[in-house]
Amino acid sequence: MYKTGLATSQAENSIIPTLHNAAYQESGLDWRYEVYPCNDASDFAALIQTAKREGSGFVGLDVSDSFIKDANRLALSRSQDAALLKAADVLTFNAGSMRSFAGAFADNAFGQAAISVLQRVGQGLSAKSVVVYGDGPRSAAIILELARAGIASLTIVSADCRAAEAQARMLFQGLARQRIELVSRSMIAANRNALVQWNNSMGELIKQEAPQIALSTVGYEQASEALARADVLISTVSWENGGADLADLAGSLAAETPSGMIVLDVCPNQAHEPSQVLSRAAVWPAGAVVLDNLELSIEQAALSIGIWASALGFDTADPRPAMRTAVGL
Questions:
Q1: Which of these ranges, 29-33, 203-207, 209-213, has the smallest mean pLDDT?
Q2: What pLDDT, on a 0 to 100 scale, did the predictor assign at position 218?
Q3: Is 314 or 196 the better-scoring residue by pLDDT?
Q4: At what angle do helices 293-311 and 16-27 cross, to 10 degrees?
Q5: Does the pLDDT at position 33 exceed 80?
């Protein structure tokens, strides 16, 4: 039996094992998903050392917010996005024939999962106006994927507007570098002169390839004004850590707030209970679509399973239906 699991500092009542184990059973995978509590970074590093050992049986681990920076640092190799974000929420171990490395490979799937959920509900994000409430590592992962999705404008609500804007622009430039490098591999593979010219013009190329998104940052006291113009709101604020209550904020919005606004609360909903945003959805404008973390958890679990199965050369059916059945959706 292969081992997978969640490395977390807050293990109680997590629904993630239920999602994964239902998917494994449906797909006929001899895998078992468990929660691995880690009190601190030292515990997490010890878990990674165990998982990397030959014969450990570990395929991969999901990583909670507390350790995503450590996961990226401890990995031997990493995806472009994990390297850009300096954070990893999915680790793959001893991946066999599909990846030639010993140790842990770092991926970041959270942003992709969030955008997939939003795109299913909103029929695409192209040209949309988006507000991201909060400025932590989860916010960064989402902003990177929003840039890929072609949104028209982005407003980040933050206590430190200057740092939030700098981070977003760094992500836009990093995405531009990824695009340039992809093109450059085929254009200059056999031409050293072209390589020199390409490097000399890198600054201008980054400006050309960076996402053309109208970017602004506002403090929390200005959030109401930003939301009044938004098509999509993504909250990355943890209520348990003292975050402001967005539902209260929604109640003060002007009548012209877009009635079709999509609201996604990405904060962990481990016990499958309504978040503060969802449980008070009545305060949002009529027609608003308010989503909690559960669909996001399902999507992220599906992405993790896909990453691990691909690394081992396995083909699996879509795990989402089994996961939704397991939690009564």
A1: 203-207
A2: 92
A3: 314
A4: 50
A5: yes
Which pLDDT band, with edges at 50, 70 and 90, does 89 fall under?
very high
- Pairing between strand 262-265 and 289-291? parallel
What is the Cα–Cα distance from 250 to 228, expressed in whole angstroms? 9
Taking a C-beta distance cutoff of 8 angstroms, is the pair 57, 3 a contact? yes
**Residue of higher predicted confidence among 240 and 58:** 58
pTM of the entire predicted model: 0.84
Domains delineated in the chain:
2-108+298-326 (3.40.50.10860), 111-291 (3.40.50.720)
User: 228-247 burial string, b = 16+ CB within 10 Å, else e?
Assistant: bebbbbbbbbebeeebbebb
- In whole angstroms, what separates CA 28 from the centre of its chain? 27
Mean per-residue pLDDT, 190-197: 57
Torsion angle in degrees (nearest 10) through CA of 102, 41, 307, 118: -160
In one letter, which amino acid is 315?
D
Residues 6+ apart with CB under 8 A from 46: none
CB 113 within 8 A of CB 81: no
Amino acid at site 106: A
Looking at residue 206, its pLDDT comes to 59
Residues 6+ apart with CB under 8 A from 328: none
Say how far apart CA 225 and CA 219 lie, in whole Å. Answer: 11
Report which residue type is found at 170: M
pLDDT digits (tens, 9 = 90+) for 69-86: 999 999 988 999 999 999
